[in-house]
Specification:
238 residues, alpha/beta, Rossmann fold, eight-stranded mixed beta sheet, 8 helices, AB_hydrolase_Est10, carboxylic ester hydrolase activity, AB_hydrolase_fold
């Protein structure tokens, strides 16, 4: 270890920031579409518990996911984030609301990447996402019984033209633990609608309503959301 590295690690410790390793890779889905993946790992060899966060519409560079990622790293949890293939191909692309199979394949590809990484415990992986990412993560969870739970940041439960049952089908038969965090002024998910929907959950479902809109980007809401997320994951994967 060089003197510069030692100094950097000392500074990170003083600032209470996680010392981590970051991997940025491009991988192809089975259909041949490239996706961009960024994996962040805590200090050490692992194997670590891991969370795979699907982005919302637009880009993976969304503040709430970044804040949650930082908090999870502090708890020795690896985080995989990625860009939908649609946006890798065309940053102005528009996703389909009738055929989500390409995004499900994107997400599943990242799950496979995480499971194959020796730094990750393949039996301790949680999926989740923000907004549209929550919809895709739900389908991925239902298709893979090895996943341990789901973290839903700003779910879409009452947006015009959609119902929670359409976007998150078969809630009564899903046994995996889940955490759903929404803002109290989020027009895409009315708190009463969310509570009513989750009351029918077949597994342990937690709901947290925090101050904020669909972005959950303001302080202290973003940090509170991150801490709630870390507490949930730590409790689910022991």
């Amino acid at each position: 270890m060089t003197r510069l590295t030692q100094l950097l690690m000392a500074v990170l410790c003083l600032l209470n920031l996680p010392v981590q390793a970051a991997d940025a890779v491009n991988v192809d889905t089975p259909r041949g579409a490239p996706i961009s993946v960024v994996a962040n790992f805590p200090e050490g060899k692992g194997p670590f518990h891991a969370v795979i966060l699907g982005p919302g519409t637009g880009t993976m560079k969304q503040k709430i996911n970044e804040v949650v990622e930082r908090e999870l790293l502090k708890h020795n949890i690896a985080v995989f984030r990625f860009e939908w293939a649609l946006y890798v191909k065309d940053k102005n692309g528009k996703p389909s609301d009738t055929d989500r199979s390409p995004e499900i394949e994107d997400f599943t590809t990242v799950v496979a990447l995480a499971k194959a990484d020796k730094r990750v415990d393949p039996n301790a992986i949680i999926v989740g996402g923000k907004s549209r990412g929550t919809v895709i993560a739900w389908q991925v969870l239902r298709n893979d019984p090895t996943l341990k739970g789901i973290l839903q940041l700003t779910p879409v439960c009452s947006k015009e033209g959609f119902t929670a049952d359409q976007l998150y089908p078969d809630i009564a038969n899903e046994r995996s633990p889940s955490l759903w965090i929404a803002g109290d002024t989020d027009s895409a998910c009315n708190p009463k609608t969310l509570y009513s929907f989750l009351a029918r959950a077949g597994g342990p479902a937690r709901a947290a309503i925090v101050i904020g809109d669909h972005g959950l980007a303001t302080e202290p809401t973003s940090q509170l959301t991150a801490e709630l997320s870390a507490d949930f994951i730590s409790a689910v994967i022991k």
